[in-house]
Amino acid sequence: MVDIGAGDGRLLAEIGIRARQLRLIGLDLRSPEPATLPVTWLRGWWDVEREAWTAADSGRTTPLTDVLPTSDPLAIVAAEWLDELPAVVAGRGRDGAQETWREILVQGDGQELLGGPVAEPDAEWLDRWSPESARAESGRSRDRAWTTLLDCLRPAGGLAIIIDYGHQLDERPARGTLAGYQHGHPVSPRPSSAINLTAHVAVDSVRAAGEAAGARTELLLRQREAVRRLLPDPPTEASDTLARLQLASERRLLADNLGDHWWLVQSVDPKR
Q: How many CB atoms lie within 10 A of CB 119?
């Protein structure tokens, strides 16, 4: 079980309690808390330009397929990981008589300027996946990162799972979703190491990229539907009322408060 963008390791810790036979691997720039978790921890970050994993201790960049084990089937979870990967933010502008996608440049004070044309692959992505938007984030870097995760599954097979904020073509925001957060509170997005920048994931594009790479889509649904389909109902026996109430509360949190998250599950068969 691999958690990429594992944060403090809490998800892996909970999985480890319930499935002690699994080898647990966490990837994140931060260190887990507590450090005694039974998790193999790989500190670093995903470099979207080099499309590789960069180790925090050495700065060395390595293909992710060389970082993760390949001898056994893998389940890779990317929970709120793709939405934090850098992406080109673009708006429509004129190049003479022709309308083109142009990069939006954000200054240190949050002011925005319309820059030059985006790279052709990003323009093609935007034309295909955000044709009606006046402003959008290119999902090309997220698609490429996702297909790299799928590549890690090919030797022995397995599953890759996205749980993230997202949208599909018929509900694509007209002005994009770039947002900034500081200490959990929304702030104006601008380049600063103190601000967490995010943009929602075009889950239909990621799905298509995975399928084009040979993966099979097992699920694509909202989290509230995933909770209904995959989690058991709380027990009705009165003998353990506290446990029943706790389960019911957890279901409400996942289905109501966080129900708009998307789940995408794709599988890859092992090489024969």
A: 14
Write out pLDDT tens, residues 148-161. 999 999 999 999 99
2: helix, strand or coil:
strand
Q: Are strands 74-79 and 2-4 parallel, antiparallel or unpaired?
A: parallel
Residue position matching structure tokens 């770039």: 178
Q: Supply the Cα-derived Rg of the chain in whole angstroms.
A: 20
Angle between helix axes 140-153 and 203-212 (nearest 10 degrees) is 40
Residue 210's closest CA among 167, 163, 153, 137? 153
- Rounded to whole angstroms, the Cα distance separating 123 from 208 reads 17
Edge-to-edge strand order for the sheet containing 98-106? Answer: 112-117, 98-106, 89-95, 135-137
Q: Which residues contact 144 (CB under 8 A, 6 or more apart)?
A: 48, 51, 209
How does pLDDT run across 184-221, given as a tens digit for each residue? 899 999 999 999 999 999 999 999 999 999 999 999 99
Given the DSSP bridges, would you call strands 262-268 and 216-222 parallel, antiparallel or unpaired? antiparallel
